[in-house]
Amino acid sequence: MLLNFGTIMKAAATVTLVFAGSVATADEVIASRLSALLGQERQSLSVVPEARMAALTTLPPASERDVQMTPNHITYDRSFLAALPRASGGAQWQCLSEALYFEARGETVEGMFAVAEVIMNRVDSASYPNSLCAVINQGTGRKFACQFTYTCDGKDENIAEQGSWVRVGKVAKLLIDGADRPLTDGATHYHTRAVSPSWAKRFPRTASIGSHYFYRQPTRTASN
Fold first, then answer.
1. Do residues 172 and 96 lie in contact, with contact meaning Cβ atoms separated by under 8 Å?
2. Which of 63, 72, 118, 183 is the most core-located residue (most Cβ within 10 A)?
């Protein structure tokens, strides 16, 4: 039986009422009661098997603690991702994982998260479809209309690098589970440094991460 703080306070309150006229005596009685309770706790703990005590008091691995339960606590490096359990999910997770694999697997961890932020930001925007798969496949099949190059470059979409697939799957899981998006300041577009699309001259740049520049699409108003 572990020490119950409520029991201690109840005992202390009772003693205080009974001995209100004698502070010194009340302190002595409280100390006696606390000593008795602590003795009971020690006696109770002494009969708990050592293996059971170790199981109760040993912290679980990092992969089962905060990094799994609190997705907002992110460190943008491979050791952080390596500590996470392998991720899996439904169709939306699959779509986002594939997009990150083909668009950003060669990036740093920060770069992968940044690309994921753009896709998530589009889902949240009224200017784009409201699901990950719909955003990623928007325009696919129409010449020069696809939003993500890998969906219309004519190449087979084979996932051959299993290590990269595991990493992007973890990134996708964290973003879908509600991780913060602090890297790109609401960006809805990105491009590699090797190209210069026309829209990049009109959209405000919000970040430069890895091999990509990130931009936020201007909000349209009735006047423009």
1. yes
2. 118
Q: Using CA atoms of 46, 47, 52, 54 in order, give the dihedral in degrees to the nearest 10.
A: 10
More confidently predicted of 195 and 41? 195
pLDDT at 160: 93
pLDDT digits (tens, 9 = 90+) for 36-64: 776 776 777 677 666 555 555 554 444 44
Backbone phi, psi, residue 44, to 5°: -65, -45
Between helix 91-104 and helix 162-176 the angle, nearest 10°, is 130
In sequence order, the β-bridge partners of residue 191 are 213
Rounded to the nearest 5 degrees, what angle is found at the Cα of 183, between the Cα atoms of 195 and 179? 125
DSSP conformational letter for 204: P
Q: What secondary structure letter does DSSP report for 87?
A: P
Site of tokens 């931009």: 215
Tokens representing residue 189 in the block? 């577009």
